[in-house]
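Researcher: I'd like a candidate sequence for this fold, 333 residues long. If you have to choose between options at a position, lean toward the conservative one.
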């Protein structure tokens, strides 16, 4: 692994210190981060004080805090040893993983998560739930990703699609969303139909541009090897040899969901992502996502992956916001 097991400190400090030794000083510098910012973040989140001396780190604090900090540091160092970088998002993911049940910790720290190759950068899951989701996308023809905003449902789905496209396993990528107004009316927006619809599709463009240079994205769109279109435009089509993503599926009606699911053609894979808590359909209109969960439960070849606030990979405050809203809804506030 490249670091030694925690050593036993002198008897006077057995109850309050854990010592870690790392073999590679260059990797230790990357682990600590610029101006030791990674260490500062781990200290803040675990309540363990971290002292650095040479290639040793000393953890001071309560046993639980030290164990959590040690797990995070060892996991991040193992990541560096394997040749993968450590950035702020990786530190946050490791901190969340150290809060997870023991089995999830072992899964995240003890095994290399699947890495997706794109033209811009490699992409990998950052939590145990994301890892299971990516594995489901790679092994199922129809996969659902359900959970709150910021958990990587759409981002990872597009990354898998780009990876399979570049590997020649699919011939095209089709990305879709329901064009449902959230307090605004499409008809009052300026421009032609394309200009009215594009703002709803922008998150899909953003994800693609993270993985493929913008100029190539535009060229592939012109060649119809990448298609980004509203859900309504899918009616009557058969999508063969394609990687197909329906985003914001909570805003599809039951009939729209059935229509979309039956577009699946030979050699294709389909991913449905959505957040049950952000339904923008008119009052009294059932969400097709909820109906699909109920109807397709247990159907062979269909997988369901679920995310919680613990899987949020945006700003840490986003996870706390989601949890606060969840508590408010649970108490009927």
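Model: Candidate sequence:
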């Amino acid at each position: 692994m490249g670091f030694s097991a925690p050593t036993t400190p002198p008897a006077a400090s057995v109850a309050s210190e854990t010592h870690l030794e790392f073999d590679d000083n260059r990797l230790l510098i990357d682990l600590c981060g610029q101006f030791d910012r990674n260490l500062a973040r781990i200290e803040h989140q675990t309540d363990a004080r971290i002292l650095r001396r040479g290639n040793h780190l000393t953890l001071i604090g309560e046993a639980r805090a030290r164990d959590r900090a040690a797990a995070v540091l060892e996991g991040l160092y193992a990541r560096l040893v394997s040749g993968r970088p450590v950035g702020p998002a990786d530190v946050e993911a490791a901190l969340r993983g150290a809060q997870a049940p023991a089995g999830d910790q072992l899964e995240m720290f003890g095994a290399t998560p699947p890495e997706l190759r794109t033209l811009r950068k490699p992409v990998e899951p950052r939590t145990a739930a994301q890892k299971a989701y990516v594995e489901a996308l790679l092994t199922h023809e129809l996969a659902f990703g359900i959970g709150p905003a910021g958990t990587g449902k759409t981002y990872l789905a597009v990354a898998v699609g780009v990876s399979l496209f570049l590997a020649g396993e699919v011939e095209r990528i089709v990305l879709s969303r329901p064009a449902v107004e959230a307090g605004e009316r499409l008809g009052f927006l300026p421009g032609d139909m394309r200009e009215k619809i594009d703002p709803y599709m922008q998150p899909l463009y953003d994800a693609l541009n993270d993985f493929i240079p913008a100029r190539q994205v535009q060229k592939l769109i012109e060649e119809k090897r990448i298609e980004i279109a509203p859900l309504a435009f899918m009616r009557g089509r058969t999508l063969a040899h394609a990687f197909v993503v329906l985003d914001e599926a909570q805003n599809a009606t039951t009939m729209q969901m059935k229509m979309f699911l039956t577009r699946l053609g030979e050699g294709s894979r389909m991913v449905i992502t959505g957040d049950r808590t952000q339904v923008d359909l008119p009052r009294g209109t059932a969400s097709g996502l909820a109906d699909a969960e109920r109807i397709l439960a247990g159907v062979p070849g269909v997988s369901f992956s679920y995310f919680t606030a613990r899987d949020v990979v945006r700003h840490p405050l986003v996870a706390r916001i989601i949890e606060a809203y969840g508590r408010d809804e649970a108490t009927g506030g």
